Amino acid sequence: MGKYFTKYGIGIAIVLILYFLLTKLLGLHQYPMLSSLNALIFGGGIFYAIRNYKRTTKDFSYQEGFQIGLFTGGLATVIFSIFMTVYIFMLDHQFAEAVLDSWNLNFNKGALILIVSLVIMGFSTTFVLTLAFMQLLKDSWNQKPS
Predict the structure, then answer these.
(1) Coil, helix or strand for 23?
(2) How many angstroms from the chain centroid is the CA of residue 133?
(3) Cα 110–113–114 angle (5° rounding)?
(4) Distance CA 98, CA 96 (A)
(5) Residue 142 φ/ψ, nearest 5 degrees
(6) With b meaning 16 or more CB within 10 Å and e meaning fewer, what string describes 24-48?
(7) In this predicted model, what pLDDT tens digit does every residue of 58-75 receive, in sequence order?
(8) Predicted confidence (pLDDT) at residue 122 exceeds the cutoff of 80
(9) Cα gap 17→63, rounded to integer Å
């Protein structure tokens, strides 16, 4: 099971990093609305991780599929959050201020709130998508027609 969530979790993180760097190259990285495509990247990776695990095991249980989905998205979230932390604190100090200015906050803004919200959004997206995909991929309890 570990090879599936490791492979797909790292894959999701790499695609997220490449997508961020592409938007940076195009000058669009400061628009938070474009991060909604991150959910599609998470969704694709989680779906394929669960589906491929189901195809290779004989006794696929809901619990195993749910674990694969959560671990895949969790690993991707941690890796991408580490990348964004390094990017914000080491490479581009104005990025966090530009994004937080677009949020129209009325209190002292720090880059840490951006990292915390990134982690929360990553884990919540992972949880919701895993629940949704397990409804599609779980084995039916309906009886087979005789």
Answers:
(1) helix
(2) 14
(3) 100
(4) 5
(5) -70, 145
(6) eeeeebbeeeebeebeebbbebbbb
(7) 888 889 999 999 999 999
(8) yes
(9) 30
Q: What CA dihedral angle connects 7, 33, 31 and 43, to 10 degrees?
A: 0
With contact defined as beta carbons under 8 Å apart, do 87 and 95 qualify? yes
The residue behind tokens 């669960």 is: 50
The DSSP letter of residue 90 is I
Q: What's the angle, vertex CA 96, arms to CA 95 and CA 101, rounded to 5?
A: 100
Structure pTM? Answer: 0.85
CB 76 within 8 A of CB 45: yes
Separation CA 143–CA 146 (nearest Å): 9
Which letter does DSSP use for residue 30 in this model? T
